[in-house]
Amino acid sequence: MLEYDMKVVKNGGGEAAADAPLIAGTAVLSNKATGAFTHRITGDHGGAAVEMRRARFPRAAEATVQVTIIEFEKLQDGNVNGNGGLDLSITGFVPTTPDEDIMLFRGVVDHAPCDLRRFVVAVATDSYLILRVEARGECDDDGEAGSSSWARRVGKFAFRATVHGSITDRRKFGFATVETNGQT
């Protein structure tokens, strides 16, 4: 059983009495099935709801992933890709639950090198964690970087989850050089 009392913190967390109630209650999570699950918990404060995602694997490892943007790639005109920031998203998934993307990062990276925060996910032992790194940026009609239309560029990393394992991988994509470090 999970008990929850979620509030919207006002004024930077000063006085708790000023916080607005969002949702409160309990949830029974007794499902013994394996895989990833999403529970939508609806509150009675203005129709607010919170989605809680959880995963249950019979044999699993905790995977800690660190992503570093090493450098932005140079464009044909000599400017650096990412002037003003690189619009970046990183999602992860495991092949046993391919329809369940885990959003790890979404935002603008405005300088390189840059360590993004560490991400922790549960991965079934001896399976793979696949990271999808997606950047949006400018390109011309031929798909070359540097004009006013937007393009999407994608890169992937795959890690095999082993107990007490570690792997580092560095890849050069069309938008940036990205390094990942995974530990289980």
From TrEMBL:
Boundaries of every DUF6598 domain copy: 2-179
InterPro entries: DUF6598
Record PANTHER family: OS07G0486400 PROTEIN, OS09G0442000 PROTEIN
Protein name: DUF6598 domain-containing protein
